[in-house]
Predict the 3D structure of the following.
Amino acid sequence: MDEQTSRDFFEYLLRLGDDRLILGHRVSEWCGHGPILEEDIALSNIALDLLGQANLLLQLAGQVEGQGRDQDALAYFREATQFRNAILCETPNGDFGDTIVRQFLYSVYALLVLDQLQRCRHEALAGIAAKAYKEARYHVRHSGEWLIKLGDGTEESHRRVQAALDKAWSYTGELFVGDDIERRLAAQGLAVDPASVREGWLAQVKDVVAIATLTLPADGYMQRGGRTGRHTEHLGHLLAEMQIVARSFPGASW
Amino acid sequence: MLAMLDEVKDPEIPVLSVVELGIVRGVRQEGSEVVIDITPTYSGCPAMHEIARCVTGALAARGVTARVNTVFTPAWTTDWMSEEAREKLRRYGIAPPGKADESPLIPLMRRAAPPACPFCGSHDTTTRSDFGSTACKSLHSCNACHQPFEHFKAI
């Protein structure tokens, strides 16, 4: 791998890893607060899957970077501007409907990207993707079925989940923008150009939204910046909580 | 060597050994140590560290110096579980996994038939949640004998 490709690939692995680390942390905030016991357990399991995937991806990122940073150094000792997650992943949990909408929109995207990524030319990344793909199928099913239950549920649940969908929509554009890094890597079979999954994503989302008797929001202004380190104020608060123990006691183990 | 490893049980499902689960992918001698290839069931499986510790511990007790190497390719599938292992699961009260779902992409609305109750064998069961006490299990209840039960998810 030449120097440029190696730099690109490190950046790309951060994007993949940071999405899962930040979203996994958000979902883990439900632990002990789930609306029913089964859901508390389900969300904790999904968070665990995402954090497990983040662990593997950031470990690989550290190896590609070759500066001696491992997954813990990357997770706990970077500032908000150095994170490459999509902004959608850092949006606050809101109510259960907000969480389900965020999870559904992201999970379908993740599934489509992982599906291609498991056939990429980098053996280690393909292996991680193949594993994560199997997990992502369950995540899509979980959030998709909830979206239908809430949308096609009571007047109140319908109203709230529609509001959640309208609110989350402006954060979805960023997922599919893609830039030179992804295009250069995709040309070498090392990444998925996210623009290539937009159509498939929209078709799946449309289907489920229709079954849920919800209305697909119109595409308006789309938020972006997460992939280049421009985040909302929410990420700083999330990191403060996530990183405090590691930063207060560097190198501590238990 | 496999016989020794067969004594190492999964900490979360103590009725199955790491060999029966299909997570031991290879055993080889490298110089003075034995290298055991292990593949995780789930990316975030919290039992992996404990399994690695148990594997090296069990072999150390027999005077064998071993090292655990984690492999990801090919990804673990419940299809690697033997018939005997499935029967052990059923007797333990966990419905064994069916064939791993290979259908393309979005699995929504296309559920496989619900698992049969491991206690009474009835197929009249209800899925409570796709996520159980561990990532690898889902929660169900039997409408015939009214027992709640867990199912080892096909993956």
Residues 1 and 95 of chain B are 30 Å apart (CA to CA).
